[in-house]
């Protein structure tokens, strides 16, 4: 029998445990154990274990448990997860001490009556069963603190609504309702006054009940993977306080928005502006001027949907059709919107590039997971009229390619006939209204005060294209909106494209731009400037001023000097330009417009791309594909964005003349992390890094490309490949696929181009083992002086081993930030600590202790007192901790402390700071304290190796609850977190940084 071995092993374990007088027994298997390693029945000797308190039987194949279970009266915790149970013995209900019960992933269709008597239960985990509801007897669990109904692995639970019996469990502190496909949750959740953590991920919630704002003790609410309405989604990004503020505003009054964008795209001169004005009913203008940038007409078009009678207000977005604008225009294509893809019959559909335009819309606004919010495209031919010959457009081909994005075809004449009628215009209007009415979020409810602010902003924009932030606050105040809510509304309005404001940017925080087209027009004037084109995008700020305030243009197209630094900053925010350092002393301030860089590799580029001794080289390719069809696609303007976003690694970061970039590529440098060559070859982005440890910089660059593609171009996917190693073969092999093969035991894969079988290991980056982190810390500290010198004389002087360790430390730090990215919304992640009274502190034996906790800057990666002066008390706290909390937090504390120890010698050298031995000492003592609190199992888990790597159990969830508790605690003591500023980097991740670095974000 296959299971015999498992059974014998269990018997042995029981025997040993009985002998040793243990009170805990672990007969659970690993989550990925093979079937034959699992128990199908339990040894009888188990029931002699009368002193047993904790029993783990998870990941076996048990179908039933015997009544003998009642012979374990001391049992406190029982883990039956991942078995095949459908019932439980009566005796279970008689266990007087049982407070923790895991029944996750079994075959229960209802909860067994027997457990109804477990009134002392504190923790119940019953996700992953086939329960349709919770029985009434659950209300007798008066002491229940934690209830897990929801799974973590994404599999959907069948329950139709939140069981109302939960409303009576008022001691609950944590409730998991993940993965239920619920579209709403009940108001009464707001009555569970002790709730601290609420899991609602993977549902179909568009909204939350305002009552949740009343939950005073709530520390975190998890809302990932829900189709939240846009305002709430933005509030969620900002964290818990913002969600509560938003819900409170909703509770005070709400209104249906009934508003949509109407976006006109198409080649230059096809008749977009004429069509929009005709839709408005404005007078016909012959020989209209071309549109610079874009123009937004806020609310003058109101159409009524014939079916629902809904009156929908449209703001029309009219884009200039010139090629050069295409890259910037994409910024404004956001769903939900109705698009008019305009073309001119005389030029024909090909020349009018109808299909290309729809593709750009698709890649910006079509979210596969949200077909209900798909952009609706109406394809409109202009210059029509009954007398005109209808040019042919292949309707079927467009429908085949774009599916239900295509909402109809029209042939209109924007020029009225002798009776003042524009041919087929009314039909088009009806279709626009009908399409808009079919987008669910067009009719969403918003807080009444939000709508009022929006209307006030629009009204004001007719007079002032921009106002100061305090004027904006005053405007909100007149609508009855207090300052903190005004702040949240500014974030939401900015994110949804109604205004432009960035509160964390020194230059931008005082100005609110009320007209979204104001900036795009200003940008288009530079893109059209001949001198700037000839200078390959380099432009002095003085010249920018001349262009923007050109007296030859009408007053409404001129921009006062006060705005110029603001525009400049905004162009940087939108990845359009960056300020360069020119080689000449006292050179006038100059910026680079990335779109205008030269078309070919600069001369002599080879000199900047040499393999240094001791360095290795590794290449990965980001292939950009349509996620649906698998065809390679172009991400329009990707390279321009990379040139801007990665400029801190530019070879010319100190002297622009050394920069190496062109329309399809660039060369970068990141000190000890190496040098990179990035090039777009037919839509494939080749990234090669040469370094002691190339993986670090390579990973960072590929992640950047993948992030950009994923977040900016919808439906496109940047998949990672490695080049085939066969000489001269140009084949590429997909990394995910190789990893799958490897996981299944294969050692070779076949290249589809050269048809050779290739050793998997030869395709992977260097297969060096992870360093022993404690040793790495010691080496880095020893070499601190060397690292310091290398800042000036070059990193190639450092040994290869040292450079590898430095890169690997950076890599670990990056992993930590990713791992703890969610709690970063609420507070900082990097800190160190020591017992205040260290001399009499015993790490192995304590119950309560006062610790000194010091916050670090996540940018500089050093403790705050190092930046503020040793005597500064900012970010330094004395807090009482219990050993119980500390034990729970120990795995997290260990990662943070080890990584802080790794990066401190490198970061301080980078800033030329001298480190006091006592600081190292503290970190070491902290580590000792943590190690003394870790269980054997936790010690053996190398979280540093785990984080950021695949192959982790599906239901692995970084336990960040200890960090959240710490945040809540610190916030109560010092809401300013020692003056740390929460900033958002370009990947929309939060970091807590010293104020002096805030402007870098
Ligand atoms: N007869 C007729 N003329 C039209 C029609 N639509 C546009 N035109 C003319 O075509 C020319 C270009 O029209 P615009 O509306 O400026 O074109 P556009 O697409 O906005 O051009 P850009 O802003 O440069 O991208 C103008 O001279 C219009 O008068 C139409 O439906 N019928
Ligand atoms: Mg126009």
Distance between the termini: 63 Å
| Number of helices, counting only DSSP H or I runs of 4 residues or more | 29
Residue share in helix: 25-40%
Name the bound molecules. Answer: guanosine-5'-triphosphate, magnesium ion
Strand percentage, roughly? 15-25%
> What is the averaged pLDDT score?
89
Largest sheet: 9 strands, parallel
Identify the strand order in the major beta sheet: 1-2-3-4-5-6-7-8-9
Give the structural class: alpha/beta
Number of strands: 37
Radius of gyration using CA atoms only? 31 Å
Would you mind describing this structure in some detail?
The chain is of the alpha/beta class. It has 29 helices and 37 strands. Strands 1-2-3-4-5-6-7-8-9 form a 9-stranded parallel beta sheet. A 7-stranded antiparallel beta sheet has the order 24-25-26-27-23-28-29. It has a 6-stranded mixed beta sheet with strand order 12-13-11-14-15-16, sandwiched between helices. The protein starts with a helix and ends in an 8-residue tail after the last strand. The model is unreliable at 946-957 (pLDDT under 50). The structure holds guanosine-5'-triphosphate and magnesium ion (MG).
